[in-house]
Every structure is written in C-alpha cells, then in structure tokens.
C-alpha cells in the first residue's frame, strides 16, 4: 500500500504476513524494507510484520530536487505506523537510520508505539554534527557504489564475493538485490533504486538532525541495542548514552555483533525481538 507523507511523498508499506501483534520494520540507510523480510518470516508465528521504504529507498521515490532532511524520514515512519496501527500501541524494529526515524515518530505522536527496539540508531550529540574534513570511508563508498549490473544474478554474485555483504545471510542478500534494483530496460541490466548520491548524502547529514536534545521528551519504551562497542564516537559507542537519555530507555550490547548484525545473523535479531516484545 501507499501512504502519503510530507512533501507529497507516497511511502511504500509492505505486508510480510504472519500472525499476532503488528510489528513495523524500519530500514537502514541504503537498504529497504524487504531486507528484513527473512527475519520477519522467522517471527511469523509471533507477529504480523510490515516494512516501510523510506523516501529515496526501495519503492518510495523522492523529488529530484529534495535535499536530505532526516526529520522527513521521521515523517515517513510516523505515517506508516499510523496507517498500520491507527489506535496506537504498535511495536517496531529500526536499524541505524531506521531506528532514528522511529524514535522521531514516537516523539511526534505519543502513544503511537508501545515499544521500539532500535539497533544502533543514528542519534548523536551536538559536538558530533556534520561531516568533518574529508568524507568518511562509508560516505566515499556510498558515493562510489556501482549502480548498475547486467542482471540480478550478476549483482548477487558480485556482492557475495566481497565484504561486507559476503557475510550477509544468503536470503537477505538476495532480497536486497531483487527488491533493491529495478530493470533498466529490455536486456539493459538492472539499476539501484537508492541512488548512490542519495545514500551518501543521508550518511553525510546523519549527525545534523539535532534530535539528541529531544530524546528526554520521548515517552515510548525504547530498547537500544548495539553490537560490540569498539569506538566511543560510533553508532555502537553512543547507543548506551541514547538509552540513558530516554525516560523509558534500556540498553543491550551484543558483544559478538557489529552494525550489520541484523543482516549477518538474523536468528539473533529474531530471538531478541521474541524475547523483548513478548
């Protein structure tokens, strides 16, 4: 289904099936909702899952002249959640940018969510805002990302041969490619739906949204999860502090994990959600 968000954006929301409570999935930068469908299938006896594609990702377009503004990702998460659970009380999982957007949505609409589980949300204090000096390797990699392949299978073969995607669960890697690329034309190959420049700009502006200051106003229960903490100035390193600033926040560190754990060990995330949302 399509839900209208700010700027007239029509947000794509996908139902993944299952039985039980409704669970919303909110994806990381450069990815899309279907990357989490293999995890949703593991939870199909516990939850009815839905995933949204944020603007510029997956099947949700963006205006050609749109300047990246993270608060609008929050708008996308909010309207998707309101459409799925008009009476509120929804549970949701957000990864990286998708975690930040869910927390923004919870702030904008108190009562919309009962519990959020957010994996290394991109929410930093003011001293860390903005790109500093040269682009980070992650930003440079996004901007230089290959946008076209001869076929879906060629893309899968390429990604499966090099880090970090060579470590991805096979079903998740296939979902990333098959739903994250679109045919260019008859025999012309396939092209990324999320433009490399859009991904890079989202990374570049991730520290500028200023939502850190609003965390004490978020009423929902929020479980902040990270992989192993190696660096203080990283999504994992700041996660515990995000939880501390939330009135109903708690923190879990997966010491065997990293920022891409949801894609590498989906069983771990499925078990975590089953335990924390039961």
Quickly describe the structure.
By secondary structure, the chain is of the alpha/beta class. It contains 10 helices and 11 strands.
In words, what does this structure look like?
It is a single chain. This protein has 278 residues and is α/β, with parallel strands linked by helices. The protein has one domain: Alpha/Beta hydrolase fold, catalytic domain (Rossmann fold, 3-Layer(aba) Sandwich), CATH 3.40.50.1820. The protein has helices at 37-42, 70-84, 97-108, 137-143, 152-159, 170-180, 196-204, 235-245, 261-264, 266-277, and strands at 2-4, 10-18, 21-26, 47-53, 90-95, 113-119, 148-149, 181-183, 190-192, 221-226, 249-253. The strands form two sheets. Strands 1-2-4-3-5-6-10-11 form an eight-stranded mixed β-sheet, with helices on both faces. Strands 7-9-8 form a three-stranded antiparallel β-sheet. The longest helix has 15 residues, at 70-84. The model is unreliable at 128-133 (pLDDT under 50).
Order of helices and strands: EEEHEHEHEHEHHEEHEHEHH
* Overall number of structural domains: 1
Low-confidence stretches: 128-133
**Amino-to-carboxy terminus distance:** 28 Å
Overall pLDDT level? 94
User: Which of globular, elongated, flat, extended, rod-shaped describes the shape?
Assistant: globular
CATH homologous superfamily title: Alpha/Beta hydrolase fold, catalytic domain
The CATH class turns out to be Alpha Beta
Structural class: alpha/beta
Helix content: 25-40%
**In CATH terms, what is the fold-level topology?**
Rossmann fold
Strand content: 15-25%
Main sheet characteristics = 8 strands, mixed
Helical run tally: 10
